[in-house]
Amino acid sequence: MSHAMTLQPVMIIQAFSFKNEKDRLFGMNTISPLRCRTKVARNANMEKLRNGYLFPEISRLELEHIEKYPNAKLISLGIGDTTEPVPEIIASSMANYAHALSTADGYSGYGPEQGNKALREAIVKAFYKDLQIKDTEVFVSDGAQCDITRLQVLNYRFRLADARYLNTCNARSKGIPLLLGSEVTIAVQDPSFPAYIDSSVIIGQAGDEGGSGRYGSIEYMKCGPENNFFPDLATTSRTDVIFFCSPNNPTGHAATREQLELLVKFARDNGSIIIFDSAYSSYVQDDNCPRSIFEISGSRQVAIEISSFSKFAGFTGVRLGWTVVPDELLYLNGFPVIHDFNRIVSTCFNGASNVAQAGGLACLSSQGFKAVNSLVDYYMENANILGEALSSVGLQVFGSANAPYIWVHFPGSNSWDVCKDILEKTHIITVPGSGFGPSGEEFLRISAFGHRECILEAAARLKTLFL
Amino acid sequence: MSHAMTLQPVMIIQAFSFKNEKDRLFGMNTISPLRCRTKVARNANMEKLRNGYLFPEISRLELEHIEKYPNAKLISLGIGDTTEPVPEIIASSMANYAHALSTADGYSGYGPEQGNKALREAIVKAFYKDLQIKDTEVFVSDGAQCDITRLQVLNYRFRLADARYLNTCNARSKGIPLLLGSEVTIAVQDPSFPAYIDSSVIIGQAGDEGGSGRYGSIEYMKCGPENNFFPDLATTSRTDVIFFCSPNNPTGHAATREQLELLVKFARDNGSIIIFDSAYSSYVQDDNCPRSIFEISGSRQVAIEISSFSKFAGFTGVRLGWTVVPDELLYLNGFPVIHDFNRIVSTCFNGASNVAQAGGLACLSSQGFKAVNSLVDYYMENANILGEALSSVGLQVFGSANAPYIWVHFPGSNSWDVCKDILEKTHIITVPGSGFGPSGEEFLRISAFGHRECILEAAARLKTLFL
After folding, report:
1. Average pLDDT in chain B
2. For B281, which DSSP code?
3. In Å, how far is B30's CA from the nearest CA of chain A?
4. How far is B101 from chain A (nearest CA, A)?
5. Position B439 in a domain
């Protein structure tokens, strides 16, 4: 999720094409003489990634438009990036912490990889009161996206280990249960945030994409207006891991308590692990939509929750998040998942920046919490303005009630075409729904992150376009 | 690398033991009834990790000692953690940046995942002047340890991909070259920083450890006084990846120009990729010891460099580092490694904290650079004090001339015994050399990070002990 800097590599990758399948596999292209290459084979999983990562592609679209219309007043409602300043009390806390690093008393070096105890305790108090979560179950991270990959690494391993085990021990002939030898399977909401699938592709769990936009080893749980954005679990195959985001990015749908109860029951019946992404939980307005999976009884045995200060406190650049792994979540052999996650965090990560953690602690003070919630209210008012404008011209609008995203239906249209058409005619950047999965086709995601005057202007332009 | 917070999990893991090998594999232990477990198999690679990660184990030793001798004045020369305040000019820059986040002009959200352009340019100017490194080849990270894992993920994949390719396409029967199907192999200096091996074990590349302290798939490059801490390359097997740290942690040896020329030639001849860890490069005093692998001609085609602000500027808690991937580094098929690394950074990481990056930029200003180098001088004077004290009592001392570590030889001794004996008699924490690999046996690593009065006191106690 970034800006101009990421554009170049995307274009270079696209320009680097092999003449045919044989060349692609054995490198008989003419880019460089053989003597200049290493003998290290490329990770073939990387080749399976569809084009560039979605958000750099959107940035490229934006840049091209700016070149074409240098004088247009472009409004970006594309990448969901916060725009409003961090509340003063929180910025000051970070500033004070940073400044104190120059004093003997205020200096600190390595902190615990799991995060500072005071912050872990404050997270429990702010988000998991009465939910039986302990501070030792909270792992502070540098953002939810980074923990998605660490969880993939955690999950990933058993497949390789199994494959090796099967090879070395002839386990199959000894009648080892198939589960042990099968590939780790993953389910995602369709549409969903692209990092779940892309990190899964890189890790090698996604299988092949046969041009359909779907990877063979991923279970796509269709979520649309026809099923109130909740998958038909009766027709959903069992997977080891279920990624579930609520409020959902991109649809903006917050799952109801009844929906999440069904999900937890499904996971318990199947022995699956839910990775619940609650990065937008602070935007939930509806009391019947839980802000945490741990509000659902029975979830502690089947769920991990990843969350973030990014959209809650405008920390997209400051980088701070957390993950909750309950003690009761166990692998098939009875071993607690939390111990392996702790080991991965200790070995592969060295903790979030101490300055960011000081900021996180300030967010959770009573004054900071109030200030941060005003920010959330501001973006929700934006969502309301955009949602009403689009509804008023007869478009079918979803999301916006419990999330900073508006999910607009354009029946029968190609979502990239709609996105480009809107850009051409109104100078507004949006994100085509198909970028979030095959079932995102015909939809557009419009972000409510923006300065109020930009949101009002965008609402006016869109109304004019569609009236 | 942390403190009390990490102790608990290590102890829990040790307490969780299976009755026998069968139980270990199939989970027939009695920890929890089957109905409470998921059906997800544990990552078997995690079981291959030897005990806890080294540094949490050292912390546990420290904690036990404090409980036993609550009134002793413990001096920690164990974990290599910086102790001196960040220079005022740098802390102020971070504070100003953090405070400006509360203003409309100073606020910023997502930055480029690769790091801010100004910082990337400053890194080139400060560390790679005249070395042909471009700012687009520099990726800012949240620390070298985190990038070690991202590089493992980058490297790892091809093996799995190959395994799947071999299975699905019957490539073997079609005469595909063996390299494509072979496991990715890794070489490390022995002794070396444990994260290289531990992350490799988690990723599943290390093979089995048969009780010898050596993993079957890792090439251990013995580095000791007998070979001037440089491996005998004539007897070193070809590997895909060579981790090489200079100045080395733990031995403190900085490789000479001639040694690095041999290393680069070896990598070029074998088509290997060197991952050069220069986290301690600012401690190099000797002009004949390069501070970057890119000082060596021909390295751009075979090397990646990882580095850090941690030990250079006391940023162990602030979290900032960088990795250089040259455009000319190519896979066997001619594809540039930099594009895949860029994609992994974009998908699995969202950039270092913007406040930390502001601090990094201040470190590289002319005034900041001077201040930071005074810090380095301070720790080097510590190293000198400790090295002289230990030499004066007849011990054989290595390192300390170009690194903040002293590597002391205790011929014929078990290094854990020496470490515990010193702790018991002097209340000084050190790290047993065997924690860094089998060839670290008989050695002790003593860190020079500490307040001067502690270092002087430690030197006096050690002299008394060994006189």
Report:
1. 86
2. G
3. 8
4. 6
5. yes
